[in-house]
């Protein structure tokens, strides 16, 4: 997998993570105006990570939050249970709004208060001890 940082391409060694690694894996994506040129790389990176974990109804579930001037939960863990569907959705995410501010605190609040909320559990957060929570 290639990761591009400030116009420098780095070759990274990757390994697939297999069972029994069960995750609720949240990606918080910066979609502010400053990321506009790097947005295709951001989407490819997330798709590459998703491809390396066991995304399935019994395995890893994926949630995505995108932020710029505002925060948007693109989909929760209850929707992120099919690897191919998650990768398609990630690769088709619309790009950043030019000149949008960077309000990361809104996305972090949404992750803590909504995506990982075990009380309302609107987004399919799992409370089982064997499920690791990765934000």
**Reading side by side through the largest sheet, how are the strands ordered?**
5-4-3-6
Q: pLDDT average, as an integer?
A: 87
Percent helix among the residues? 25-40%
> Any guess at the CATH architecture?
3-Layer(aba) Sandwich
Number of domains: 1
CATH class call: Alpha Beta
Quickly describe the structure.
The chain is α/β, with parallel strands linked by helices and 135 residues long. The protein has three helices and six strands, in the order βββαββααβ. The chain has helices spanning 39-52, 83-91, 104-115; strands at residues 2-5, 8-11, 23-30, 61-67, 71-75, 132-134.
Your description of this structure?
The strands form 2 sheets. A 4-stranded mixed β-sheet has the order 5-4-3-6. Strands 1-2 form a two-stranded antiparallel sheet. The chain contains 3 helices and 6 strands. It has 135 residues and is α/β, with parallel strands linked by helices. Helix 1 (39-52) packs antiparallel against helix 2 (83-91). The chain has one domain (20-134): 3-Layer(aba) Sandwich (Rossmann fold). It is 26% helix and 23% strand.
């Amino acid at each position: 997998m290639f990761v591009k940082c400030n116009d420098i391409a780095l070759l990274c060694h990757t390994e697939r993570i297999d069972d029994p690694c069960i995750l609720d894996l949240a990606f918080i994506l910066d979609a502010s105006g400053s990321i506009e040129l790097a947005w295709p790389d951001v989407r490819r990176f997330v798709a590459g990570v998703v491809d390396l974990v066991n995304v399935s109804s019994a395995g890893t579930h994926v949630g995505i939050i995108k932020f710029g001037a505002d925060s948007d939960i693109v989909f929760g863990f209850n929707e992120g249970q099919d690897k191919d569907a998650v990768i398609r959705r990630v690769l088709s995410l619309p790009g950043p709004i030019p000149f949008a501010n960077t309000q990361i605190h809104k996305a972090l609040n949404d992750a803590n208060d909504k995506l990982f909320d075990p009380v309302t559990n609107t987004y399919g957060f799992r409370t089982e001890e064997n499920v690791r929570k990765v934000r």
